């Protein structure tokens, strides 16, 4: 089992910044990929960014946040960060950290929420205009 704990959410005005953290505990040797998804009210949970511990570290960021959001990881701490800059009201959502316990078999597995095995409880991000 892997436990994920997110932190860093909050309320900010448009143009502002927030940094989310996700710390993994438990069987962290099984956390091959750690990613962020978000879910706005009335919408499906969508991919934001993902980070792989495989060397060299691999990461992907959705086009909707590219250039504004940066994902990074600290392998020693098994913690992944999501640095969010130039926030927009449409970024408002609950942000979830997730991990999968095996290497992705296909490229598209990185972006598919159904391919992730463990989830955090989520942290609210609210961006006001």
- Mean pLDDT reading: 92
Q: From N to C, what is the helix and strand string? A: EEEEEEEEEEE
Basic shape: globular
For the secondary structure, the number of strands is 11
Number of helices: 0
Largest sheet, in brief, is:
7 strands, mixed
Note the beta-strand portion: over 45%
- Please identify the structural class as seen in this structure: mainly beta
Poorly predicted tracts of residues: none
Radius of gyration: 14 Å
Estimate percent helicity: under 10%
Q: End-to-end distance, in Å?
A: 40 Å
Give a written overview of the molecule:
Strands 2, 4, 5, 6, 9, 10 and 11 form a seven-stranded mixed beta sheet that branches. A hairpin with a 5-residue loop joins strand 5 and strand 6. The protein has no helices and eleven strands. With 129 residues, it is mainly β. It is globular and about 40 Å long.
Briefly, what is this?
The protein is built from no helices and eleven strands.
Keywords:
mainly beta; 0% helix
Architecture blueprint of SSEs:
Blueprint: E1 2-7, E2 10-13, E3 18-26, E4 33-39, E5 46-52, E6 58-61, E7 69-74, E8 79-84, E9 93-100, E10 118-119, E11 123-128
Parallel strand pairs: 2-11
Antiparallel strand pairs: 1-3, 3-8, 4-5, 4-9, 5-6, 7-8, 9-10, 9-11
């Amino acid at each position: 089992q892997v436990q994920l704990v997110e932190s860093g959410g909050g309320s900010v005005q448009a143009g502002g910044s927030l940094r989310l953290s996700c710390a993994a505990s438990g069987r962290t040797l099984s956390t091959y990929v750690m990613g962020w998804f978000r879910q706005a009210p009335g919408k499906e949970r969508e991919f934001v960014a993902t980070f792989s511990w495989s060397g060299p570290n691999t990461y992907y960021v959705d086009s909707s946040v590219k250039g504004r959001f940066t994902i990074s990881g600290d392998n020693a701490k098994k913690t992944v960060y999501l640095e969010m800059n130039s926030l927009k009201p449409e970024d408002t959502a609950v942000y979830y950290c997730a991990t999968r316990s095996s290497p992705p078999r296909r490229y598209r597995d990185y972006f598919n929420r159904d391919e992730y095995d463990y989830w955090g409880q989520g942290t609210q991000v609210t961006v006001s205009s």
